[in-house]
Amino acid sequence: MASSAALTRLSEWPRLKLANLPTPIRPLARLAEALGSPALDLLVKLDSETGFGLGGNKVRKLEFELAPDRLEGITCLITAGGPQSNHCRVTAAAAARLGLRCALIVNGPEPEAPTGNALLHRLFGAVIVTVPERQDRSTQLQSTAVDIELEGGHPLVIPIGASTGLGSLGYAAASIELFKQLTNQKPPPERTVVFVASSSCGTLAGLLLGISLLKLNHVLLVGVSADMSAAEIEERSKQIACEGADLLGWDGPLLTDSIKAIDDQVGDGYGLSTTASDEALRMFALHEGLVLDPTYTAKAAAGLISWVRTGMVSDLDRVVFLHTGGHPGLFT
Ligand SMILES: Cc1ncc(COP(=O)(O)O)c(C=O)c1O
What we know:
Strand order of the largest sheet: 1-2-10-7-8-9
Number of domains: 2
Oligomer: single chain
CATH class of the largest domain: Alpha Beta
Bound molecules: pyridoxal-5'-phosphate
Largest sheet: 6 strands, mixed
Helix content: 40-55%
Shape: globular
Order of helices and strands: HEHEHEHEHEHEHEHEHEHHE
Strand content: 15-25%
Number of strands: 10
Radius of gyration: 19 Å
CATH architecture of the largest domain: 3-Layer(aba) Sandwich
Distance between the termini: 48 Å
Structural class: alpha/beta
C-alpha cells in the first residue's frame, strides 16, 4: 500500500475523541538564551495539554485503544502501571467518562495517604489491585481479567502504557500534526531533532511510524529513557512501529536510522531525580513557566540541555521538545 493510502487510513481510523487537538506549539526563546544559545530554533509541543484526565501522551494512545468498536459489550477497563502511573490515571478517567468499571494493577504497597496520580486513580473510581513487584503486573493483569469474566463482566485489557501497535497510531497521527505545524515555519538548514521521554516506547514508535509515512528523512527522534537501556528502547520502538504499520497495511520502509535512544539521564533509576533532571525542571519553570514531571519529562529535558551544551545540536538544527505531561508526579 502506498504511504498516501496508509495516511488516509490513519486519518479515518475509528477513535474515541478525548484529546484537545492540535496541541499548541511555541518557541522556547528564553530557555535557548538561558542555555547560552540565543539563536537556537528551540520549540515545545505541548502534549501536556491534551487535556482529558489532566492530559499527557496517554490520551492520544487511548483514543485508539478505546475506539468505539472495541468497546462494544465491554463493562470494565483493566490496565497496569506503577503507583504514580500517568497511563493508569488517564485509563481510569476514560472509564469514568464511559461509565465503565476500571481495575488497575499497581505494584508496591497501598499508600496510607495517596497523592498525585495515586490519588487521581482513586478519585476516578478505579479498583486498585496491588502486586509486590513490577514484574508481577502482567500475570496479575491476565488473572484479574479472568476473575472479571467469571463474575460475568467483559473486560478490555489495555497493555502497560497502551504501547501497542494500535496505541502507537495515536503518535503516528501526532507526528503528522507536528510536521504540519512546522511547515508553517521556515525549514531548518540541517535537521529537525525531536526530544521525547521514553519508557514503554509507544510514543517513540508512533513518531517513527509517522515520519516514515511522511518520508521525512531530515528528522532525528531522540528517545530519552526513563528506565530501560537505549538498546531496549530502540528495539522495542521499532517493533511497535512495525505492528502499527501492519495495522495500516503499510509495508513501506520505516526510517529506523532516524531514531536514537539515550539512557544517560536515567541516573539511579526510574522515578529518581538526578542533578541534571532537577536543573532541567527548574530551568523550564523559571525561564518558560512550564511545569515538567520528575520521572519522564525532566529527564528528557535534561537530555536536550546536555545536547545543546555539548554541541550535539546547533543553530543549524530545529529542536523540538515534545512535552508528554505527567504533572501530577510533581505533587508526590
Ligand atoms: C509523562 C510521560 N512521558 C513519557 C512517557 C513515556 O511514553 P512511552 O511509555 O510511550 O514511552 C510516559 C509513560 O509512561 C509518561 O507518563
